[in-house]
Recover the amino acids of this structure.
């Protein structure tokens, strides 16, 4: 079943949330984005300016949509946006004026909608005076305005010292969309779209590109050690995705109820797993880690420590629960 990540963008007025959203829209490159806003007037997208009442929907360039709502109507709007008929690949919620970011995170994590999945909390902070409390909550902290901050390295280090998630510095909100969603390849139209024209007119705002680290193993991974690795929020990692084989599904007696190959997706320390589709299989693990400033050797060492050794005792009946307790069962959600 198709799912759509819902990303929350939070931060004080004037820190660059609108710039970040605009950058995502103008550099979507085939990704169809739904945007939920209420203080929409600051966004530099002309079509948004006509969306003047709660729950209204306005079409943007490139198959994107803009919705305007208040906190009470958020669940209904999200249900409309993530429905398969919309064809959206990502939904971005600009949290200013809606609710506290912590409450929005709880709302998303508790959502019964099988098509909406938590895509992470992005906190935008001002490089000149970063809000460290906001940084502590986020899966990804965007330290914006580096071009205006004479002590940018010190600001980044201050945020990294308290942030549990990844930290990236930007100017003009130029965040690489690949940190939030995988690129989508679609046929290009015969003429330039509005977002492409805007990009040509405005010029590029170079962004720090997303980095990836790949890990493969021909041996299964221990569920407990892998869960601990993912729960720790490895430094610089925003997302993890891939498939993992657990030894005998983590149970002493394999069964259809305990599959041995699992699909793993994480955003920050939010983990979700489900039985891997039949076409996806591995003898051990195939994982990709996405983020910025990644230490490839340290990450691979951490995952290598999760590999089950040939001389290890068989797993206990409930060994897999360390990881499979994060299971999402879309068929019954």
């Amino acid at each position: 079943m198709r799912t759509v990540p819902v990303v929350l963008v939070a931060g004080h007025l004037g820190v660059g949330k609108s710039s970040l959203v605009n950058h995502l829209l103008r550099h979507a490159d085939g990704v169809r984005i739904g945007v939920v806003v209420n203080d929409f007037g600051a966004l530099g997208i002309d079509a948004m300016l006509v969306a003047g009442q709660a729950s209204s929907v306005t079409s943007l360039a490139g198959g994107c949509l803009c919705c305007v709502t208040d906190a009470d109507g958020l669940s209904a709007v999200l249900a409309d946006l993530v429905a398969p008929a919309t064809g959206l690949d990502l939904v971005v919620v600009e949290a200013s004026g809606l609710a506290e970011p912590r409450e929005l995170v709880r709302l998303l994590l508790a959502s019964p909608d099988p098509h909406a999945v938590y895509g992470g909390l992005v906190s935008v902070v001002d490089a000149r005076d970063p809000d460290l409390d906001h940084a502590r909550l986020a899966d990804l902290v965007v330290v914006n305005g580096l071009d205006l901050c004479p002590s940018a390295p010190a600001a980044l280090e201050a945020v990294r010292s308290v942030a549990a998630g990844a930290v990236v510095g930007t100017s003009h909100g130029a965040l690489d969309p690949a940190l939030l969603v995988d690129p989508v390849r679609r046929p290009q139209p015969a003429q330039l779209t509005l977002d492409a024209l805007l990009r040509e007119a405005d010029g590029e705002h170079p962004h720090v590109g997303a980095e990836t680290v790949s890990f493969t193993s021909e041996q299964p991974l221990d569920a407990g050690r892998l869960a601990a690795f993912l729960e720790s929020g490895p430094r610089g990692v925003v997302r993890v995705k891939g498939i993992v084989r657990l030894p005998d599904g983590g149970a002493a007696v394999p069964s259809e109820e305990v599959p041995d190959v699992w699909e793993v997706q994480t955003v920050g320390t939010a983990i979700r797993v489900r039985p891997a589709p039949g076409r996806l299989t591995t003898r051990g693990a195939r994982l990709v880690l996405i983020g910025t400033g990644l230490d490839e050797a340290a990450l691979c060492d951490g995952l290598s420590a999760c590999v089950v050794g040939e001389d290890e005792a068989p797993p206990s009946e409930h060994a897999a629960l360390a990881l499979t307790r994060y299971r999402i069962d879309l068929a019954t959600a």
Notes: The chain has two domains: 4-202, 211-324.
